[in-house]
Design goal:
three-stranded antiparallel β-sheet, about 230 residues
Amino acid sequence: MIKIKNLSKFYGEKQVLNSIDLEFKKGKAYGIVGENGAGKTTLFRCISGLETHKGTISSDFKKLKDHLGLLLTEPFFFSKITGREYIQLLANSRQIKLSSIEDKNIFDLPLNQYASTYSTGMKKKLALTAILLQENSVFILDEPFNGVDIQSNLIITEIIKKFKELGKTVIISSHIFSTLADTCDEIYLMKNGEIIKKVEQIDFNDLESEMKKFTVGNRVDKLLNLN
């Protein structure tokens, strides 16, 4: 379990997270949605130990970051590291022995090629594969479906469902609402650094309609000069 109490984050005088309280349980998947700039990525970086913050983040682990796999929207790779070496590097960081990386290459990536030459979608699939093989207990996936082909999206969806069965905790952000509806038990709506709504699975459709209303509104009509 992960408990977040009164979490706030400032960059200088600018406040990007404001008194956030959340609780994430084992065997559950949680969606975090909101417009760009709402604070989703900053929240994820705080949970992962990459940012200092005010408030507390506690868990069942002595060091949460040692049991957490973070998939960033734009993963970083060294310029001269192959896909195979990257996977091995992340496995070594958790002291995980991989018997055969080839057998784990479920996205059919060119593992002997430099990761820096991969397409955006391939980079994301490589980073995801590496954190999956770390045997983490908690996964934070920032836009895992964005820029990835349909077949891979289906695989990622099934991975999330399997993790829930295995008692792992999964936290996801996505602008593709249908993917969250297929995988999440709860969805939290963020706006201006605050959690403004929590929705259970049964009410996901209502949340999607509400999001369309305040996000889209009459902007399309304005663009097309319809009003």
